[in-house]
Structure formats: C-alpha cells, structure tokens
Amino acid sequence: MGRPFALELYGGRRAFLQLLREQLRHHAGALAAYRRIDAAAVRRLVFICKGNICRSAYAAELARRQGLVVDSAGLEGDPGTPADPKARACATRFGLSLDAHRAQALDDFEWREGDLLVAFEPAHAQRLASWAAARQGVQVTLLGCWMRPWPWPYLHDPYGLSPAYFDACFTRIAAGLAGLRRQLGEGPHG
Q1: Where in the sequence is the domain holding 142, given as residue range(s)?
Q2: Structurally, how many domains does the chain consist of?
Q3: What pLDDT is attached to residue 4?
Q4: Which of 60, 69, 112, 119 has the most CB atoms around its CB within 10 Å?
C-alpha cells in the first residue's frame, strides 16, 4: 500500500493498522458493548473526540442539520477554540458551516440524563465509559460501529492531514450517523 493511498483513505499507515486491529476486535465481540444502547432512553447525542475541532464538530453540525438534539465536546478540548480551518473547508464542501463552532472540554461539559456519548475511537469510548459510569442515564457508543455494510470502529483524527483524508473521514462520519439514526428510530429531535 503506497503512502499517498494510506494517507488519503486512512490517515496514514499506522492509522490503517489501528483500523485493522479494531475491526478484528469488533468482529471478535470486544466492542459489542458499544452497540448495546437503549434507544428509547436517548434524549441527546453528544459527539466527543480529542479536541472538539474536527470530527465531533462536524458530526454535531451534520446531526443538528438533520433535526437531532446534539452537542459536542473534546476529551482534551480547549474551550472556545474554533473548528480547525481544514475541517471548516471540508464541511463547506459537504454543504455545512462550522464557522459558529467553539470547542468545549469534557471536564466542563454539562451532561444530562439521556445523553448518548458518541466516540470515534475505541480508546476514547473506553475513557468515556469510565466517565459515564459515574453519571446516571448516560450511555456510550462508537459511531463507526454503526456503518454498513462494514463497520469502521476506528475513525482516525484528521487534524493536520490532507483535505482528501478530511473528505474520507467526514464521509465515514455521515455513514456512521446514518446507521446510528436507523438504530435510534426517530431519535432525539429538537
């Protein structure tokens, strides 16, 4: 696999190998807990990535555009930081605007009962599961596990990568959101 191919489709060779590892774990059932959600209890989708300036910012805006009740935060978010310029450019190519987005840190986030925390990487989901365990009525899922026909449990962070990888990542986010919406039925509408 050539470097440009790996970079543009997967975010790099290491990201590709991480995806393969996580797909194996998914097929072995190690990530099954992230597909067991009580859809009737979900009142809000909360998209969470590392910095809340790329993946979660885009996913939240896409879901909001679809009429869902959403929010977003970052595990290491710097509150008030705007969306990454490449993320804003990619969102524009996909017909959305991230201009109004400002990052939130998970530590400062106001959770609600009925929140479904939506992660993009299994390591993040694991951290969120520990965080959610201390909060009643909060569930955790992995967005890529809802993609069809093939799950994509690891959606590599596009920060600092090419516009082509941003496009690939945001396309996968849209596919994961479509699958999650099917699971939720009508979902949390505002």
Answers
A1: 3-184
A2: 1
A3: 67
A4: 119
